[in-house]
Known about the structure:
Layout: E1 10-14, H1 19-39, E2 60-65, H2 71-74
Amino acid sequence: MSRSRRKTPVHGIGKGSEKLAKRWWNRLFRRDTKRALERDAEGALPMNIHKHTELWDGPKDGKMHLDLNDPSQRKLMRK
Length: 79
């Protein structure tokens, strides 16, 4: 596996992972769902998690395409 490379030259900008932010957003969603169930058993539950997710507050700023002619960016193609 020492020679394995990415297939597409795209890399994330910013921190390495959004795992902690996604865990936080899911906790907020589950908490609101539980509170809605406690208030009214037949009421409307929050069905859309996007109300709780703030993509602009996440640790990543998006993705960038790599220039494979640049040696410093060629290193980012490694897995």
